[in-house]
């Protein structure tokens, strides 16, 4: 059982539930989210439910593989996700991932969610560092990882959705 529930001023970071399928399918199809996270698009509620069941079954605090819902506290609505997981594109280093529905972007929710998850991960797992990979032209996401304290190490090429793409590669070490 996944027993994580982190509250911030605006958000609740918690496990996904089947009740989130409609919201997850919706935010994953938003123009900005689907453009930057093309491999995460869920075309309908069936795909969203399959994804939710998959990430919840894959949950592992040791590896770690942690993917959680970002719930807008006031609206009681799932507006995105935040998580850490091994990323094949960078030799299975553990990466921070996040996405926030287009309608909620620009309000600091991605930073707020990632910040509390990073703190939780460094306190509750054996991880000593996290990676982040962001396309250079994704200015908002590059700004988020920098606000979180990640340092840009290098620009790497990696295969993404069948094409070779440039990514800024960042690292954050536990303090």
UniProtKB/TrEMBL annotation:
Transmembrane segments: none annotated. Residues 11-174 form the N-acetyltransferase domain. PROSITE patterns: GNAT. InterPro entries: Acyl_CoA_acyltransferase (IPR016181), GNAT_dom (IPR000182), N-acetyltransferase (IPR051531). It comes from Oceanirhabdus seepicola. It comes from the Bacteria. GO terms for molecular function: acyltransferase activity, transferring groups other than amino-acyl groups. This is GNAT family N-acetyltransferase.
């Amino acid at each position: 059982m996944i027993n994580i529930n982190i509250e911030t001023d605006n958000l609740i970071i918690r496990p996904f539930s089947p009740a989130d399928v409609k919201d997850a399918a919706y935010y994953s199809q938003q123009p900005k989210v689907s453009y930057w996270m093309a491999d995460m698009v869920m075309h309908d509620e069936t795909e969203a439910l399959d994804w939710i069941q998959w990430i919840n079954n894959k949950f592992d605090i040791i590896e770690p593989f942690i993917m959680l819902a970002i719930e807008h506290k006031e609206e009681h609505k799932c507006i995105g996700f935040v998580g850490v997981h091994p990323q094949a594109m960078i030799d299975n280093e553990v990466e921070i991932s996040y996405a926030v529905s287009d309608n909620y972007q620009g309000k600091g929710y991605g930073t707020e969610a990632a910040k509390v998850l990073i703190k939780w991960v460094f306190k509750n797992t054996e991880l000593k560092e996290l990676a982040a990979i962001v396309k250079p032209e994704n200015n908002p996401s590059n700004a988020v990882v920098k606000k979180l304290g990640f340092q840009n190490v290098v620009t790497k090429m990696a295969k993404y959705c069948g094409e070779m793409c440039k990514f800024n590669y960042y690292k954050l070490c536990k303090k």
